[in-house]
Design brief:
alpha/beta; 43% helix; 567 residues; globular; 17 strands; pyruvate-formate lyase- activating enzyme; seven-stranded mixed sheet; Rossmann fold
């Protein structure tokens, strides 16, 4: 076994408890992608001298109520990842209060940080909102509860005044040295039970890009400090090697919003991580995934990263239409996406991508351009083609623009809009119904193929049981699925544009038949996929559940509310 050289951590950013009795916290949230946000909070709470546990969020409040009654936490903290789930979170929090749970209840995440006043108004059983980066603020909140101090005076906290009005204190300055935070607490993650142990990891926080649909830059911009903060490569690799040697983790999913953002500086930083993996003797033993923009794809840089284990790339493509990309403020052209795809294929890297077929300014022409782009980009099945529409999340330039134009509808928790051409509302409703299973569920082809395409090109022979024939087979299934979806979308858009608007509806006979044909072919392809998996899985021992297969959170509702597109 290669020895691990672990650097001594820098001075801790977490204040220790001074006076008072340590408190007990219970953190609640989704645990897909390891939920590093919650696990960084856990390690911070422990470093501050308090006790903490984590539970998975469920819409049924009964298990949480039972856990709270048993453990009697002093604080229950909710991590609200998806804005569109705020009403459901409010219902569960209300059930806790109805059951007599009197713990301090706080909530954090992107959406509560931006719309804290609406959260406090609409979820009356929440005591406070922890805004933006929460490690230090949450620990200070627990310290205040331990000492009986006035927690309403803390930086980074929003609350209600005695008159019931929402108020936010001054925001807390972010921790500039991310290495002053302890590694996330992963003790409750059963990596060892999986034949394909996969862990999420963060090398940085923030993103300098200003895409109109994305709340990441506003999230870090509003609290001040650098738009992107980098950990030291040595500490990132320390964390990876510790997980490899002590937990058997060989594959890492970097959850950085954009691993290569900030140009040469980021390329050198990422390259240093890869170089350290090699120099410490772990080249060929570890694999990792990263996210970036297509204009950051450079062959020389990627070859350096591949030497250190790069095996998969997520790209924030979002659109293949010139006007759509302009509306998104991507500052990029479709040809750049295509060039990036060619480089990744040439290097044998698997990739997947975010794609918004529709945005608030879509036209029939832009949708056709997007369909044609998908055919050029992944018609060969190298990656499965996802698609949704753009959503107006809190804090985004998109939401502000729609509001200024008088086009924002729905509620603060569930904002919505109509298209400029009402016929596209018909198309969208039909598209959502037709492709719901394919695009947005764990049984759909997007989810199934995404994992298997990753596995087929995984650069870890011990964890990859696929053959060249397997790779050709799964790529063929993906190619048919992609071409089928494109043809179905094109037939629908042609029909809707040609029909008179009067009487046009998503449930027309033609569109119903088109939906049935798509669903029939998807079922056939799913059966082909299952046969493929049976052949591949027969070559390995154990189940492939977990790991990378659970590395994307899926929204199970009837809208695309899973936060697609972040780079």
């Amino acid at each position: 076994m290669t020895s691990i050289r672990v650097l001594s951590p820098t001075r801790s950013a977490i204040p220790a408890l001074s006076g008072g009795t340590p408190r007990r916290a219970l953190l609640v949230g989704f645990q897909d992608q390891d939920n590093l946000g919650l696990r960084y909070l856990m390690s911070a709470v422990e470093a501050g001298g308090h006790r903490v546990d984590i539970v998975t969020y469920q819409s049924d409040p009964a298990p949480l109520v039972e856990r709270a009654r048993r453990d009697r936490p002093d604080l229950i903290g909710f991590s609200l990842i998806f804005q569109y789930m705020a009403p459901d979170f409010g219902r569960v929090i209300g059930a806790l209060r109805d059951a007599g749970i009197d713990a301090h209840i706080t909530i954090g995440g992107h959406y509560p940080s931006f719309d804290y006043a609406e959260v406090l108004r609409r979820i009356p059983d929440v005591d406070s909102v922890v805004r933006f980066d929460g490690e230090v603020t949450l620990v200070e909140l627990l310290h205040a509860l331990a000492r009986g101090d006035d927690w309403r005076a803390l930086e980074g906290i929003a609350y209600r005044t005695p008159a019931g009005e929402p108020r936010s204190n001054q925001l807390r300055a972010p921790v500039e040295d991310l290495d002053a935070l302890p590694f996330p607490d992963r003790t409750s993650i059963a990596y060892e039970t999986h034949p394909f142990p996969t862990a999420s990891i963060l090398g940085s926080r923030g993103c300098p890009w200003n895409c109109s649909f994305c709340s990441i830059r506003p999230f870090y911009e509003d609290q001040g400090g650098a738009l992107r903060r980098l950990r030291r490569p040595e500490r990132v690799v320390d964390e990876m090697l510790e997980l490899f040697e002590t937990r058997g983790v060989s594959t890492f999913l970097f959850q950085d919003d954009d691993f290569l953002a900030t140009g040469r500086r980021a390329r050198e930083w990422a390259g240093a991580i890869a170089d350290l993996i090699v120099s410490r003797g772990y080249g060929g033993r570890l694999a990792f995934k990263m996210s970036c923009r297509s204009d950051e794809i450079e062959e020389a840089s990627l070859r350096r990263l591949i030497a250190g284990g790069l095996t998969h790339v997520y790209m924030g493509v979002e659109s293949g239409d010139e006007m759509g990309l302009a509306n998104m403020n991507k500052k990029i052209r479709p040809e750049t996406h295509l060039r990036a795809g060619e480089i990744l294929k040439r290097l044998g890297l698997s990739f997947d991508f975010g794609f918004m077929l529709l945005d608030p300014w879509s036209t029939f022409e832009s949708i056709r351009n997007n369909i044609a782009f998908l055919e050029r980009f992944v018609g060969d099945g190298w990656s499965v083609a996802p698609f949704c529409r753009m959503l107006p999340y809190a804090g985004t330039p998109l939401r502000r623009r729609l509001e200024a134009d008088g086009r924002l509808s729905g509620t603060m928790f569930e904002p919505d809009y109509r298209f400029l051409d009402p016929r596209l509302d018909v198309f969208y409703d039909w598209m959502l119904a037709t492709f719901h299973t394919r695009n947005f569920t764990s049984e759909g082809l997007c989810h199934l193929l995404r994992y298997s395409l990753f596995e087929a090109r995984l650069r870890l022979p011990a964890a990859n049981p696929t053959t060249a024939q397997d790779r050709a087979t799964i790529q063929c299934i993906a190619a048919v699925a992609n071409r089928l979806a494109c043809n179905t979308l094109r037939a629908a858009i042609d029909h809707i544009e040609a029909e008179p608007f009067e009487g046009l509806k998503a449930g027309s006979e033609f569109l119903q038949h088109l939906q049935a044909l798509e669903e029939t072919e998807e079922r056939r392809l799913t059966q082909e996929y299952k046969l493929y998996r049976q052949r591949v899985d027969a070559r390995r021992t154990g189940s492939v559940d977990g790991g990378f297969d659970n590395s994307w959170t899926l929204w199970q509702g009837d809208r695309e509310a899973a936060g697609i597109g972040t780079a």
